[in-house]
Amino acid sequence: MTIIERIADEIARLFPEATIYTENQADGFNEPSFFIEKIDTSEAPEMFDRQTRKYAYQVIYFPDPDHPKTDMERVEDYLLSGLLELKGYAPLRHIQVTQQEDNTLIYQFEVWGRFYPDKKDEIKLNKEEVKGQII
Q1: CB contact burial 16-50 (16+ within 10 A = b; e otherwise)
Q2: Residue 10, Cβ neighbours under 10 Å: how many?
Q3: Higher pLDDT, 1 or 35
C-alpha cells in the first residue's frame, strides 16, 4: 500500500462521504472534495547503508462553494484532530495548515521513515568457526 493510499484511507475514515482524488482531473475537481499529492522527497544517509527518508505531502480541500469559509474551518478542525498519523505506519510531522485566497484549504505534513538495504548478495556465515558470540 502506498503512502498516498494510506492518507486516503485516513481521510475516508474522518469523512466517509467525501470524494478523494489522488490524480489530477482534466475536468477539474468536484466540490467539496480532497486531493492528495506528494510534494517533495529527501533522504539522508546513515551508517551501514541505512537512510532516513522524509516524504512531504499535501492534502488540498476544495470546500462547498455555498459557504467555503465555514466549511474550511470545520474541515481544518477535523484534520488537526484526526489526521495526525497513518495508523500502524508512521506519525505525521511538521503539520501546517493554510487557507488560500482561492478558497482552498491546504494541509501539509511530512512522513519520516528509516530504510534498510535489501542485502541479497550479502556473504553469510556458512559453518564458520567463530570465537565469541554472534549477537
Answers
A1: eeeebbeeeeeeebebbbbbbeeeeeeeeeeeeee
A2: 19
A3: 35
CA–CA dist 20, 91 (Å, integer)? 21
**Measured distance CA(109)–CA(55) in Å, rounded:** 8
Q: What angle do CA 54, 55, 61 make, to 5 degrees?
A: 145
- Residue spans of beta strands (DSSP E) within the chain: 20-21, 33-45, 51-62, 85-86, 90-99, 105-115
Q: How far apart are the first and last CA of the chain?
A: 33
Supply 54's cell numbers: 522524509
Higher pLDDT pick, 41 / 126 = 41
List all residues 6 or more positions away from 126 whose beta carbon is below 8 Å from its beta carbon.
none
Q: pLDDT for 17-62, tens place per residue?
A: 999 999 888 888 889 999 999 999 988 888 877 888 899 999 999 9
- pTM, entire model: 0.80
